[in-house]
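Escalation from tier 1.

The customer reports that the assembly of two entities below gives different structure tokens on two consecutive runs. Tier 1 could not reproduce it. I'm attaching the input and our single run for tier 2 to review.
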Amino acid sequence: MSFKGKGGQGETIIAEGVKVEGNFTSDGNVLIDGAVSGSVAASGDVTIGERAMIDADLSANNAIISGEVKGNVRIGERLELTSSARVKGDVEAQTILMAPGCRLNGKVTMPDGVLAIETPKHNKGSIVA
Amino acid sequence: MYCYIYDDFVQERKFERELAAIEARITDLGLQGKIVRLALFRHPNEIIEREVASGVKTVVVVGNDETVHKVANAIVDHHMVLGIIPMGTPNSMARILGIPNGVAACDVLTKRNIEKLDAGRVNDHRFFTNISFPSSRGVVRYEKQYDVIMERKGDVQVVNLETDPEVGLMAQPTDGVLDLFITQYVPGRFRKRQVQSHLPLKRAQLLFEDAVRVEANGVEITGNQFMLSSEPGALQVIVGRERSI
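Tier 1 run:
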């Protein structure tokens, strides 16, 4: 697939105003700003926007989460939680980058991995393991 | 062996000189073949069936986008090669395929650079460019795996080959998938914002709350259930060097 439109090459985009129900799979990269319930599995990278509401288990190669995820997150390489991320579920990744202000409630597993927590200016970040 | 299909309108007086120049160039290049003229009650399918039987391998359309769609639909099942000599307007499909207007298109034919393009299918109808569904609420159903539900009304477009660069929905017609776009307006801080979803698909069902009417390259379809699928490499077409696919 080599889509050359507004959304970038080969990217599936679930925008605001759209809800996915069921076991969503993708062969490429996925950008989610809408709602998903069920599961999300992508062979590429997944970006979850600030407005996204994910009530699903998530698996991908890399992921950046800025919205709300209720479900287990299993990432092959790098997981980035931005300051607006709210994750309720177990997380597994090689590398996890957490910004101040993000919320993570769940078990963190890092097989041979690295955890990086950005130095918070205001101590808003919380990890409950 | 070539067969040239002239659309009805190219026989008008204003095209006389251009057509004569094209015919002269075809003779110079040694690409002569049978000439068949489309008429109001002469369906391209009948012409193609007859030409297949007489051993024609390449059908060259002399006309505009509408002529190309009519003939392309008829030749796909016979695995013939399509050539285009654009005349009249609109000719956006030829432009995307890098085929210049009029006489210059004859030189593209002689190079025989063949590209296999995908076709799209909506119910029993084939399309080569795109189809637009009017604003409605609907669901895109991917087999039994998942549903993509439109929570508010939106415009749905299914694109194989976008012929209008202004629309900005360029899709690659050689990748084996159709690109489905949902354009909606959601509340913003001061006014509504436009958002767009993009879903690549090989096969999916599109279900609407109410019946809608769509046009798929010259055929009108009305209903609230549409089966969409991609036919990879269905159309063999001679393309130019300046193609944008």
